[in-house]
Amino acid sequence: MKSCAATTTATSNPFLSFLLRTWNSGSCDYSLDTSRFLRDYAVWEINAFLWISLITITCLLTNKLFKLFKLWTQARKIPGPPCPSFYGHFNTVSKQSLTELLSDSHGEYGSVVKLWLGPTQLLVSIKEPELIKEMLLKAKDKLPLTGKAFRLAFGRSTLFASSFDEVEKRRELLASELNGRLIERANVIPTKAVDCIMEKLHHIMGKGSIDCKMVSQHMAFTLLGAMLFGDTFLAWSKATIYEELLTRIAKDACFWASYSVTPFWEQGFWRYQRLCTKLKCLTQDLVQQCSKNYKLYHGMDPVSHNETANAGMEATVGSKSYSGIFLQDFFSLEELNCHPKAREEPCGDIMGMMFHGCLTTAGLISNMLVRLVTHPEIQHKIYSEIIMAQKGSGEIDQPNAEKMPLLLATVYESARLMPAGPLLQRCSLKHDLRLKSGVIIPTGAILVVPVQLVQMDDSSWGNDAAKFNPYRFLSTTAKISGSLNKDISIAGPVELLDQGQSSFVLNDPNKNPAFLPFGSGTRACVCQKFVIQGIARLFASLLEQYEVRLQPGSKTNSKPMTNDSIFQNFPSPEIAFSIRNN
Fold first, then answer.
1. Cα 95 to Cα 563: distance, rounded to the nearest angstrom
2. Which residues are listed as membrane-spanning (predicted)?
């Protein structure tokens, strides 16, 4: 029976049958027929493999070619300047600022224009506020280059991936933490952050003048670190090293991400990776310190508390701060929701938050400092508002920022005039984008909003759109004129105080669709309220104790500088902090 079964199996496979006949013949040498058969069989296998490969490659290329023709066909319906060459407007962009080119194009072709950055790369710019609002709600993804920059620098992240589906749940949890319980706990942090900042600045001032950009960077880093990590960060001995590493990595992140293929052959790339690894180790050390203090805060480890208590830890346990609680709550929530990536790489999210937060917050603080030193009358009125808010509330340490509308309006106006970047970028990775105006934007096209142009457009902000006027965000309590764009002179005597209360109320800036310093729609900055409140409290504590002035001989320029990809701040002036006599 076994022999019959073996014979049947062999006869069903010609190749096995041939081998059995050869073996049964007892011959040890391959015959000519055997060699020819094996050769023909090998040729057949190779030909089959080559045909399958050829068909597969042809299908892939045909699919790409079909998508390319579809892109060209759909793009023809979008208005825009004609391509000067096969490479599109790439050479034009290299010679002229992209913001200036978009400004000229919008002026000639309307609110939606296209530019070709190459034969396969389409850029679509939108300037109309209502269309911008619609686009930002529908285009949920970010450019792959953005995710690559974060991944190279900080590793895997569930907050800064390009696809919205990968970050949606994480963003909701982060927004709940930052804009909810964390703001309530953070009332005391800016005062401590100011003390820590001024301690370093006094040391620098003893050696000479202070550069506004350097001050802003240090203030943003200290504020963000203190509000995320509490007193642990302020007492952390490696904070200065962490700040220097974060700054160096921020400068090179986009450069190394711009390579289509990771440049393993470049020595500079490996030096950059070593810096990133060192930053990750420091982040892990900070998280461990927070976890330790979290246990101390809840009395979970009294023996360790007696052994390791120091000034920073005593401040943590003895105050109303939340050292480490934010991290513990945030990541434990992720674990309960079964997000294995968060458990594998929590440091990637933390470093990304510090990187992105410091970069944007430093620019806003720098612009606000420049505005205050160039408009001392506004600084004086804000100081009066802070004093009256303290008297009215009875809070000695830190009044509520909501009671200081002029201060908040100054923050909003500074953010309007100096956005974090020249362009707000989005894309749709899975499907075409159809706008109500009838425009169809192809899948994969780069969608941009020229934020600088939109936020300084006269049609949205009035004739004084290019001027610093925080009163555009205020309306009188008498409701005589509640217009967001009303032109109220900031040079004349404006009465701010009325029996201990401000005579102005703050309008919601987000009701104006042209207000986009924090983005809008599904991928808007989840930290907007957190950042605004933090900066307002920081300046309330700072201006209560110090007056900010221009260093004698220092000059400012009211016009910012731009290049092709980075919207830079003013030429950084030298400033000085004078202690108030009170």
1. 10
2. 41-61
The residues, any chain, with a CB within 8 Å of residue 107's CB and separated by 6 or more, are: none
Would you say 525 is a known binding-site residue?
yes
**CATH at residue 293:** 1.10.630.10
423 strand-pairing partners: 450
Task: Catalogue the long-range contacts made by 532-535 (C-beta closer than 8 Å, 24 or more residues apart).
Answer: 532/408, 532/411, 532/412, 533/183, 533/186, 533/401, 534/186, 534/189, 534/190, 534/223, 534/224, 534/227, 534/361, 535/223, 535/361, 535/364, 535/365, 535/368, 535/411
Query: β-pairing, 446-450 with 121-126?
Result: parallel
Can you tell me the distance from the alpha carbon of 82 to that of 97, in angstroms, rounded to the nearest whole number? 18
For residue 505, tell me if it sits in a domain: yes
- Round to whole Å and give the CA distance between 226 and 86: 51
Kindly state whether residues 144 and 216 are assigned to the same domain.
no
φ/ψ of residue 446, rounded to 5 = -80, 120
Angle at 298 between CA 294 and CA 303, to 5 degrees: 85
Domain membership of residue 1 (yes or no) is: no
Number of domains in the chain: 2
Non-local CB neighbours of 243 within 8 Å, separated by 6+ positions: 217, 218, 221
CB 91 within 8 A of CB 462: no
Cβ contacts of residue 80 below 8 Å, gap of 6+?
105, 109, 113, 114, 115
CA distance 236 to 508: 38
401 and 273 in one domain?
yes
- Could you please report the per-residue DSSP string of 179-210? IIIHHHHGGGHHHHHHHHHHHHHHHHHTTS-E
Q: 114 is in which domain, residue-wise?
A: 62-156+421-460
Q: What's the distance, Cα to Cα, between the start and end of the chain in Å?
A: 109
Neighbours of 376 (CB within 10 A): 13
- Considering just the CA atoms, what is the radius of gyration of the chain in Å? 31
pLDDT in tens, the chain (582 residues): 444 544 444 445 555 555 555 555 555 555 676 777 778 888 888 999 999 999 999 999 999 899 889 888 888 889 988 887 777 777 776 666 788 888 888 988 988 999 988 888 889 999 999 999 989 888 888 877 666 777 777 777 777 777 777 777 777 777 777 766 666 655 556 667 777 887 777 777 665 667 888 888 888 888 888 877 877 888 888 888 988 888 888 778 777 777 777 788 888 888 988 988 898 888 888 888 877 776 655 554 444 444 433 433 333 333 344 444 455 555 544 443 444 444 445 677 788 888 888 888 888 999 999 999 989 999 999 999 888 887 766 555 556 777 889 999 999 999 998 887 788 888 888 888 888 888 889 888 889 999 888 998 888 898 888 889 999 998 876 444 444 444 443 333 343 334 344 477 888 888 888 998 888 888 888 878 878 888 888 888 888 888 888 877 666 554 444 443 334 445 677 888 888 876
How many helices (H) and strands (E) the chain has is answered by 24, 13
